[in-house]
Amino acid sequence: MSSYKFECLNVDISPEGVARVEINRPQALNAFNTQTWTEIGQCFTRFKTDGDVRSVVLSASGRMFTAGLDLKEAMTGPLGKPRDPDTDAARKGYYHRLFILDFQEAISAVELCDKPVVVVVQGGCLGIGIDLISACDMRIATDDAYFIVKEVDIGMAADIGTLQRLPKIVGNDSWVREVCYTARRVSPKEALAVGLVSSVHATTAEAMRAASDIAKAIAAKSPVAIVSTKHLLNYSRDHSVREGLEYTALWNTFAHNSHDMATAIVSSLKRQPALYPKL
């Protein structure tokens, strides 16, 4: 079984292939410092090629999913401290752009990981938290959850994925612009109504059980079918219908060579659970 050890994340993989990832900085309300987002990128990049992982449940410890960016570090790190006070704006900008791109890639690793990710949000989900959950496949909330696209309140536009992914998740451009421009608080009831989350539960324990049930159901399917489905859904979201169909035809010319299809058909005819080898 694969082993993952991080400073800001707790990672465990069940025998069924469900990876449970917990953001673990409760003393800082799970605010994202550089170590946190770097480890998320490393973790989900490894998941992509880890055959022991078939699905993922992402959560956070403590009373809040995340307070957003760790502002104390931001004021002394790449966001708040120039590399050299005598360096001109073009050179400062060049390296600042690379820093933002690294941050984006770390969060995008969740989306690019072909293993489906179910995220559980309890308490506040602010700023970078919206970037992160937008990169997940499914979002589940608790009754005490709330969501804020917070970046305008610290004088910037969200730049790690919210403005790109949220409109495609919700499908209501007017609503997305409202919450991004005003940084207002969104309740779990409203999040459910607009399609940001798929269900709301009374407690974190109930939400975790619901997420685990989904992840276990996914893990029991053919891993070839699951990674193919996620990959093709993401591709088709970002391309025309015609392009999506043509790419799917190309993808399945090799994916259809899996033994999993025969296993699934035989198991269905025998009315028995199918057992698939890991990816």
UniProtKB/TrEMBL annotation:
<protein>
    <submittedName>
        <fullName>Uncharacterized protein</fullName>
    </submittedName>
</protein>
